[in-house]
Amino acid sequence: MPQPKATKTSRLTPRQVLLAAGVVVLSGLVYLPTLGYDFVLDDKPLIAENRDMLAPTPFGFFVQSYVRWEGMQGEDLHAYYRPLVASSFWLDLRLWGMRSSGFHLTNVLLNCVVGALVVLVLAELLASFWPVLLGGLAFALHPAHVESVANVAGRTDLLMALFLVFAFLALLHFRQRPSGTWFALALVSFTAAMLCKETAILFPALTAFVLLPELRKPAKRSRALLMVGALAAVGVAYLVARAAVLAGPALGWGEVGPGQRLMLAVNSFGRYAFMSLFPFDRRIYQNDAAALAAFGWPTLAAAAALAAAVWAAIRYRSTPVGIGSLWFVLAILPGCNLFPPGRSFLSQRMLYLPTVGVVLTFAALAMTLRRGRQALAVCVALYAGVMGLVAIRSMPAWRSQLSLDTTIVAECPNDVKARFELGRDLLAAGDREGAAREFYRSLASVLGDTAAWLSLGDVMAHEGDMGGAVAAYRQALSILPNSALLHSNLGAALGQIGDTSGAEREYRRAIELQPDLAAAHNNLGQLLAVRGSQDSAIVEFRLALQSQPDNTGARFNLGVALQASGRLEEARAAFERVLLQDPGYPGASERLRALPRAVLRQ
Question: Fewest C-beta in 10 Å: which of 113, 133, 425, 442?
């Protein structure tokens, strides 16, 4: 079989390259519907709820962890350093405010740019129009890319791929026409890629493989060594900077043992290799470690895929087939559970960068065929179209958190955490009956789920079932007895059923555990006011406002207590402040008008 060789000069005309890139960009616009999607999953804590996004400049992201919140989905996630991604969110926030459509538009445009760069790489290596065009289309329409594009937080893959593919393109130009410009562009782009996602760190290994022929030639060896050495040095500098910046706990493996971890890594490689060619399994969330680690077809697929990649790298060496094979292996290895996983042991977003290697390998192999090229081109075009349809059908799951969690529960009906998240979504949407159903199903599997008991108690309180709410909160407290929030909620439920002594006891316990808990101070103040202890109630309302100045409910209650105590001027000031914060706050206007005119004139 003839070997496809990397050409020194492209035989494609500029018009053909532009046409191919334009078609790929247009195909990338299938993601335009995502402009109407909400923030989901990590988008909210990373953007909407991230206080660091309020900073006047984005430079602080370069000296802090990418993930700074605590307790996301029951885990502490701090082991990431991605300042350029955070900076892009910061810039989007200045451009679009909190309109999610603007953030999604950035993702769509980044995906189109990556697709165009992939076309340029294919054109540089293959120099044949139809393989370049069809390879670009296969990349642009690959369904495994949906999560990276439709989820704003998936921008890590988009930005890393953009900079890494550009660095590779600069490397190819440097190999053909060595110059300081291409050398600098490769280094800068590689650095930017690492500042977007850690996976990029393996690029120097790919560079050494690409420049292997030059390393064997004395006349070119020094330039090749300089490029490889410079990239490796930049990689080491990045690792040092990353270690100096990161703080806090890293992800853990939980109950997954070393043997199971090894099988997870092997089987993940096999599944990813299969999914890269047959991306029609649209499951978003796969966290069953036992099932994913079991010996089976993924194990055999991993052995076959690794053997094929090694054979291609040896047989074809630094030609497009060998380069593409090694690209896939190096890009997918970090996502194969070699490190502690996130919420899922297998995520399609991990395939965004590796599919560049896949399309390069098979486009190059197609060029070696002596017969049947036209029939193959038609088949690939149809295949790309089918992939596009699968991608379009997969996108709506990412429309909102509710649609996403509904999809995940449908895929993993026995997953307790997924049902709990769906219950919270339904509660936020006002479907308390549906929320209670999901919380009950969650608790049926894990009776020790404190968050589910708390949420179930909240649902029952909203529904007026205060006895059930009390029971749910007590069950939660039996698991987590020092939770101030649970004691405060239990106190509110006890107050509703007439147990004021019990309510006061719970409020005071909550305040003892968390002195700045505004809700507990406010609730205790209301209870004391009903008893006629207005002075004590005023103290509690002021303490609530001290820790939460914008709490209009506590300020209104303070005004009522001051009015009942005869401190009318202070009451007037409190009601006016309430109306300033919320002009339509119930009862505030009436209370203000009810004050004596002499007080109002003052």
Answer: 113
φ, ψ of residue 72 to 5 degrees: the values are -70, 115
pTM of structure: 0.74
Q: Is residue 327 within 8 Å of residue 206, measured between CB atoms?
A: yes
Nearest alpha-carbon partner for 61 in 98, 88, 42, 94:
88
Q: What is the rounded distance in angstroms from the CA atom of residue 426 to the CA atom of residue 419?
A: 10
How much is the average pLDDT of 200-211? 92
Alpha-carbon span 418 to 416, nearest angstrom: 5
How far, in Å, CA of 34 to CA of 391, rounded?
12
Residue 455's CB: how many other CB atoms inside 10 A?
23
What is the C-alpha to C-alpha distance for residues 367 and 131, in angstroms, rounded to an integer?
7
Q: Residue for token digits 């960009």? A: 25
| Own/partner long-range contacts of 392-397 (Cβ < 8 Å, ≥24 apart) | 392/30, 392/33, 393/282, 394/143, 394/146, 394/282, 395/31, 395/33, 395/34, 395/146, 395/150, 396/33, 397/282, 397/284
CA–CA separation, 381 and 391 (whole Å): 15
**Dist CA 478 CA 458 (whole Å):** 17
Q: Which residue spans of the chain are classified as CATH 1.25.40.10?
A: 401-601
Could you give the dihedral angle defined by the CA atoms of residues 309, 310, 315 and 316, in that order, rounded to the nearest 10 degrees? 50
Q: What does each C-alpha distance from 78 to 60, 201, 342, 384 come to in angstroms?
A: 16, 19, 11, 38
CATH second-level architecture of 401-601? Answer: Alpha Horseshoe (1.25)
Residue 253: the pLDDT is 57
Q: What is the pLDDT of residues 393-446, one digit of tens each?
A: 999 999 988 888 888 878 777 666 777 777 777 777 777 677 667 766 665 444
Least Cα distance to 350 among 154, 121, 119 occurs for 154
Quick: pLDDT tens for 521-564.
Answer: 988 888 888 888 888 889 988 998 888 887 888 888 888 888 88
